[in-house]
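hey m, so remember when u said the tokens were messed up on ur end? i reran from scratch. heres the input so u can diff it against urs
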Amino acid sequence: MSNHDNVLEEAAHWLGQGRRVALATVIETWGSAPRPVGSQLAIRDDATFVGSVSGGCIEGDVVTRALETLETGKTEVLEYGVTDAMAWQVGLACGGRIRVMIEPVKG
């Protein structure tokens, strides 16, 4: 399920069940980015997620950070790139850079 509509529908479904949900969206890319701008990942409060922001390279870190935004209620913008040590740790070795916005969704 990498289609935007499915991601947003699933997020709406989770909210309807009373779950807390965060939405991660690729807002900028440079070089060889694995997913285009607008790609989305919906993350539920139990770490279940649907969609993709990186084809799998950084999803684990994005999910962890999304769970933090559910606690703080604050939107975060993260940048991952091949030049950062963090990028290697989370597996973004594809040579590009991406910026991801993570926001808690208000039901």
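this time it looks ok to me. The mean pLDDT is 86. if urs says something different then somethings off w ur setup not the seq
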